[in-house]
Specification:
single chain; about 350 residues; alpha+beta; eight-stranded mixed beta sheet; nucleotide-binding; GHMP_kinase_N_dom; GHMP kinase; ATP-binding
Length: about 350
């Protein structure tokens, strides 16, 4: 009891800050799934990914009139203490960062959750960043803490890819060792690649959201059991990620679309829940309109469809997708990673 009273006094005397942080969503080009511990601990992993200028933002206001905690996200909450929050990610983040006696919290996102853009990781990175004291933050420390929230605290069968991209930003090749240590390789973004990313890579929302942890659980179990088809597909995806990294580094953008298509064919072998007939039809519509490749982002089962489109076919692909009633999310490269600012409260 005395320790709790001393902690309350310390928190009351600490300088209060209104904090705002944002972390970017991400688009994976190749290697997704090889960062999962079930595979990476066997073979090591490699993911080629880029952060986009679409974000999850978190605001922490360190007071409330009645001393309670108010949270405004997908499900509004009003609780007596942060430990009573039903948002698992937020509750675990507060356990690591330290409690707040009263607060008003809010999150905002450019895309729905559960859509394959790494939203849960971006939320966790942004919240942890907002809860840190003002000043420079090591992106590696932030990524490791956020991945520990999801992997260790919550026990979700995910890898570190999303957390590193939300923290670092840019275009990266993430090498995952067998001990799950991550080496961050910064890939150059020349004018040819930048134009391709902003003009020729198109994102379309399938209209279906899902829990990535649930979708990835099937892949995790198949890998742990040594299923030949799953492990073999992941090995080929691993090799493809090396090819993608070389193409990106050399500005060979014409190779990216066909590699995305090959990646999608391999990804469909990981689990029956990766795709659905409606998603297959949507992708075939894009291909028929001129797309030279594409794949579903995240674990599969829904979310955003990424398609690569030559210049001459962009209008036709957009028209074909519009006829099917799907929404495009336009984007460009984010190079800043997670950013935070604080003001006296």
């Amino acid at each position: 009891m005395r320790r709790q009273q001393e902690e309350s006094i310390r928190l009351a005397r600490a300088p209060l800050r209104v904090s705002l942080a944002r972390a970017p969503l991400r688009v994976s080009l190749a290697g997704g799934g090889t960062d999962l511990p079930s595979y990476a601990r066997r073979q090591g992993g490699l993911v080629v990914s880029l952060a986009i200028n679409r974000y999850v933002a978190v605001t922490v206001f360190p007071r409330s009139f009645d001393g309670r905690v108010y949270a405004r996200w997908e499900r509004d909450e009003r609780v007596d203490h942060v430990t009573a929050l039903t948002n698992d990610f937020a509750r675990a983040a507060f356990r690591r960062s330290g409690p707040v006696p009263a607060a008003q919290l809010a999150s905002f996102s450019d895309a729905p959750s559960g859509t394959g853009l790494g939203g849960s990781a971006a939320f966790t990175v942004a919240l942890l960043h907002a809860l840190r004291p003002p000043g420079k933050v090591d992106p590696r420390e932030l990524a490791e803490e956020a991945s520990a929230v999801e992997m260790a605290d919550l026990g979700r069968p995910v890898g570190k890819h999303d957390h590193y991209m939300a923290s670092y930003g840019g275009i990266r090749a993430l090498h995952i060792d067998r001990d799950l240590a991550v080496e961050v390789d910064d890939l150059p973004a020349g004018p040819v690649l930048r134009r391709y990313l902003s003009d020729n890579l198109l994102l379309f929302y399938t209209g279906v959201s899902r829990d990535a942890g649930t979708v990835l659980a099937a892949q995790h179990l198949r890998t742990v059991r040594g299923d030949e088809s799953t492990v073999g597909a992941l090995c080929e995806i691993h090799d493809l990620a090396h090819e993608m990294a070389r193409a990106v580094r050399a500005d060979r953008v014409g190779e990216i679309g066909p590699m995305l298509h090959r990646h999608w064919e391999l990804k469909r072998r990981l689990s029956p829940s990766v795709s659905t007939p409606a998603i297959d039809e949507l992708y075939e519509s894009a291909r028929a309109a001129g797309a030279d490749g594409g794949k579903l982002l995240g674990g599969g089962g829904g979310g955003f469809l990424l398609v690569s489109v030559p210049d001459a076919a962009t209008a036709g692909v957009r028209a074909a997708m519009a006829r099917r009633g799907v929404t495009e999310l336009r984007f460009a490269l984010d190079e800043a990673g997670s950013k935070a600012t604080a003001l006296p409260a």
